[in-house]
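anyone seen this seq b4? input:
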Amino acid sequence: MTDGNDAIVIKKLIKSFKKLKVLDGIDLSVKRGTMLALLGPNGAGKTTIVRILSTLLKPDGGEVLVNGFDVRREPKKVRSFIGLTGQYTAVDELLSGRENLVMMGRLYHLAKEESKKRADELLYQFDLTEAADRSVKTYSGGMRRRLDLAASLIASPPVIFLDEPTLGLDPRSRLAMWSIIEKLLEEGVTILLTTQYLEEADRLADRIAVLDKGKIIAEGTASELKADVGTERVEVVIERPEDFDRAVKIMERDGMKSDREERSIDVSTNGSVFAVKQILDALHDAKIEIDTMSVHKPTLDDVFLRLTGREASMKGEEKNK
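predicted toks r here
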């Protein structure tokens, strides 16, 4: 269901590239001032959705609205409300950081003095003041990504599309970007994020949608999606290799994962002490020794594995999508 509080509305969106159907009836909405994280393996169609939302690609069918405007019929109005940061920086490395921002402001039809003022504000906000007059080619990857995001905000858009904005960044730079994104949310900006980092979606997003083979296969908060997997998981490593097969039979249940080489068995439980005790008692009664045991709560990786049948290894660029 959608209402007037939705900044982004997608209904029955369809897109194909020749005979390959990339998006097959997508329904999504994002409330104003919130973030939706879009997760999916390579080729799922995440970047295709972003390109359609930002008017860079026309849909084959369905309805797509941004701030109430249709991306096909009113692309200029849509572009006046949005900012876009892609997987790779789109700044001119021959110019300085300040020159890049001032140029972007002028492209958005801001007055010259207003462009300079806005550039100074963003350079300070993104911790780039000291490097403001250096050529961008001297910037680190994290600095370039921050400048790219700053450029997308030059006109203070109420809706921002972030297509894997922290791809390839080191952990420190990624944390810095997360902090900036959190501040944007505090300011009431609406954000649609695609990411390959599940912890990124877990930390930042109000809601998460999982895209696979052109369809939304799950949507909810991180807590809701994790609850569908199970309350907790128990992993045991068997002491003696010759006991491994017997241990697998004893612990066998839906969702069990085992690794013979590592002698590890991983099962879901309801999170109670009694459930863990049952597993340990059954192994003890069978005279099977345990090397180590650990208990952990479900992660988005567990969610992704259950929904798609594969690990959330989403590195690389979506080709043509």
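Residues 312-321 have pLDDT under 50 and may be disordered. Residues 171-186 form the longest helix (16 residues). kinda curious what u guys think
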